[in-house]
């Protein structure tokens, strides 16, 4: 297993120890598997909490910070945090104005976050609401969009919900805006090589030297189709076509685009893809605003990339551009 | 070859096209292989120029920006830019106060940058100076430190030289400070897997499933010794011990530390290493200031990491903390 670690069992706790030691200006760890903003929750502001498995940095816990999230519950690699950890994160995010649970649509996370919501409403009288990210267009057909997985679109939802909460909007309004951001995201992924989960110690899937997996999930879930490796422009076109089939963009539309490495794929290759993405939206007459190119939502050392579009209206664009800061993204 | 690209021959040009399209607020491309700050050179400020092979993003060209570099000459993957490209970068960096060439100690780069310096001094009457980064402690013994390779320490030198130039210090003074930053950096690398150069289409070296290469260069140059893969703390200790043997740190000393992924190694594993780095310097009574953990100087999709220390005095710490902005690092 070619990874830099001590014991698989201590991977996440040692990671969090280094993470908070490296960035004390952004992160505090009030509980074993909970990360909160330095300084804690903000009184009178709707708290925004997320959670999910480890192995996706900067997702999830990296996006805790001013203008982003208030707290995050941290699971083992690719595993849901417990309901207790999520309840603790909600309590730490609470500034007296309610807490929005904003996370990806995965069974274990949904079950535990629902339970955590009940716990804090009963025990602590904290009002909560939920917005699920389900942006992976190929993980279920459009008529069953609620079954889709949440992937890199989470990054946009965190940014926009965080900015909305910063205006001191109430829980209903922050929830509305976060839901609008979630509904405006479309993502698709592709992979060239798997990753290694520390506790398993082996690759999450096998793939030939000349193959690529299209529609891959961020935990190594099988893709939708496997193909011979194609040139970058053909791969990018296929991904963009799938997104456009689900959400049309045309003349005068404004959007943001995230071209994201799943881990190993270098920035150089993301820019080769972004070049093509830009050509495609230029051809449609749509304008890309504040593009993101880099590692925003990863699957450890997986080779591959995802493309996410965020359709903008005036409100979403304003929140996207509002000031925010964490260790990985500063606006 | 598991890479996302169109043709190997167009890799760098297509990458630059996407790079400038994604970040027009930071970068412009006035010449085919030259990247300059958006808005061009700053009148009356010493220009700072770098250059080198592609495949190391964010190094080199990513660090063009306010408080960092003024221009960069961009070579093919792991290949020096030409003297003409370097001369063009120097001309574009020139704001009338002279230009510092600040780059890594590699034969081809040194030869071409020296030639470029002669060209602009003769043809354009631009005064230039040179500071070479040679921070890789294991690439040559201490008594031949001038033979060492330049690796991730470049990131610190770019930051500090850029801040010094922003004070409108003259060329001699900017050169003095940049040299001090270069002399204060120590780096060491280790790799678990090679990378693939697009034009070669195959791995830069072969390594066993249970082996690691210590003292690896950032172009896949062979390491100094090969060992069985060890636990993260043992690897980190061995790297820190090599640095400490070259540059002592003790009680009350201040330093910055960069724990850098060579590409594929995930952030999670860098934090596991940083946790140990922090313990080691805590034990010495030395204080880490503004640690950097992430991908700052890569070798495409190589798996592995480097550790760099920057010994600080009051002057270097002030310049390290001065405002600066590029697409990858904002202070």
TrEMBL record, chains A, B:
Keyword Nuclease assigned: no
InterPro entries tied to this protein: DhaK_dom (IPR004006), Dihydroxyacetone_Kinase (IPR050861)
Keyword terms, alphabetized: Kinase, Transferase
Gene Ontology CC annotation, any one: cytosol
PROSITE patterns to which the protein is assigned, alphabetical: DHAK (PS51481)
DhaK domain ranges (all copies): 7-329
Domain of life: Bacteria
An individual GO BP term: glycerol catabolic process
One Pfam family, short name: Dak1
MF GO annotations: glycerone kinase activity
Stored PANTHER family: TRIOKINASE/FMN CYCLASE, TRIOKINASE_FMN CYCLASE
Protein known as: Putative dihydroxyacetone kinase
Organism: Aurantimonas manganoxydans (strain ATCC BAA-1229 / DSM 21871 / SI85-9A1)
């Amino acid at each position: 297993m070619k990874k830099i670690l001590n014991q698989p069992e201590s991977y996440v706790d040692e990671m969090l120890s280094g993470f908070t030691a490296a960035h004390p200006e952004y992160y505090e760890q009030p509980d074993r598997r909970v990360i909160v903003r330095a300084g804690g929750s903000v009184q009178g502001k709707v708290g925004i909490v997320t959670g999910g498995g480890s192995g996706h940095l900067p997702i999830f816990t990296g996006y805790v910070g001013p203008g982003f999230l208030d707290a995050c519950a941290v699971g083992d690699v690719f595993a849901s945090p417990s309901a207790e950890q999520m309840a603790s994160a909600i309590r730490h995010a609470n500034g007296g104005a309610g807490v929005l649970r904003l996370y990806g649509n995965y069974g274990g996370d949904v079950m535990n976050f629902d339970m955590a919501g009940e716990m804090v409403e009963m025990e602590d009288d904290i009002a909560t609401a939920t917005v699920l990210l389900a942006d992976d267009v190929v993980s279920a057909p459009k008529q069953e969009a609620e079954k889709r997985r949440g992937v890199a679109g989470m990054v946009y939802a965190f940014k926009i919900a965080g900015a909305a909460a910063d205006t001191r909007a109430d829980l209903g309004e922050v929830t509305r805006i976060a839901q609008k951001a979630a509904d405006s995201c479309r993502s698709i992924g592709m992979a060239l090589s798997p990753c290694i989960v520390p506790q398993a110690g082996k690759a999450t899937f096998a793939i030939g030297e000349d193959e690529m997996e299209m529609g891959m999930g961020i935990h190594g879930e099988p893709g939708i189709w496997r193909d011979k490796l194609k040139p970058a422009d053909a791969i990018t076109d296929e991904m963009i076509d799938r997104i456009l089939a689900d959400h049309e963009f045309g003349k005068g539309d404004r959007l943001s685009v995230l071209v994201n490495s799943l881990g190993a794929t270098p920035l150089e290759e993301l820019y080769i893809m972004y070049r093509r993405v830009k050509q495609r939206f230029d051809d449609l007459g749509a304008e890309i605003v504040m593009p993101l190119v880099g590692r925003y939502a990863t699957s450890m050392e997986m080779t591959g990339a995802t493309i996410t579009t965020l359709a903008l209206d005036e409100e979403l664009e304003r929140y996207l551009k509002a000031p925010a800061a964490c260790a990985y993204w500063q606006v």
